Amino acid sequence: MNRVKYSQDTLTHVLCTFVFALFSFFYLYYYQADLMTIMQHVLSEGQTHYNHFVGAVLITIVLLLIQVGVVRLFQRMRLSWAFTFVPSALLLAMITDVRQSASAANGFIEFGWGGYVLPLCLIMFFVVVWGLNTSGITDKYNLDFKNPTHKLWVNLTVILLLMLFVCGWGNSDRVLHDRLHVEQCLADNDVDEALRTLQLHSDADENLTMLTAYALSRKGQLPERLFEFPLKGGSASLMPNGKNVGFGLIADTTFYAYLGNAYLQRMSTMHYLDYQRRHMRLNRRTVDYQLCAYLMDKKLDAFARNITKYYEVNDSVQLPKHYKEALILYTHSHSNPCIVYHDNVLDADFEDMQKLEKSIADARERQTALRDTYGNTYWYYYMY
Fold it and tell me: Of 1, 19, 30, 322, which has the fewest CB atoms closer than 10 Å, so is most exposed?
């Protein structure tokens, strides 16, 4: 009978350990990998790099070793096997309780309440277990289930609750996760995956706007596709400002070196682009950044005055999509435009958009209808 009981207990121990280890690895490797990357990057000040697989394996091993330590510590006390994973679960929840900060001083991330609350919970756990065993309550109310199957499922249920606790407490901010994933993709030169991630968002964010422009520029599609993505913040969100817009993994110097020149003095987007223009340091990348900055700020006059300096504007030259849309809008909205631009297809589309706009009286329905049809155009961005 003792041998049978030992085998049943071993099965419970192995299954609980296997389930927790599997959860910890996949939780870290798939869901929180980018978060752990930015944490190590910030805490090491960019000196070390986090490997997703190795990091997940090592942290899982550490959590299992902590569980072994708890078992050894309470080996003379009555404690269900699943509850020996509580300290490991608390630690896992604590290291993944990281959120986006509005300040650049700490790398745009900061620890949440878990850094204060969970250590207290850990102390309470040890105190409660010690108190229940030394007071004799566990002997009086013996919860050692006689049915081995029942005992197994109770322990697995506790493990499941711990897993749900970790998932609920850890960071689940989709915007932050996607932002970090996009930065990781750009750092790995996987621009296509970065753009696929950015396309999944329907809500605009300043940091995602900067990453969108950067990814499209590296793909050579900035003036062709920029306004197909949700944008926020105007031209100010195109470059890091040291306040609410910035990179987590990518160094600012890398970004500015990509545009042409990196300077010690931080500048706003338009200040930087104007400085490059005045010192004749504009290249094709910064030219498109400047023209798109005018469009994001809805400065059609400045856009029309400057586009002819860098692009030949006539019927025989194919301009990028959003530049054509902006010129059509400029031509139709000015009685005496400095540039008259026409495109048969776009002119017809613009007239159809105006007709659709006038045909719907309700403002919300009108915006929804226009977004469904023209949401990927500069016209919709300009008007709404």
Answer: 1
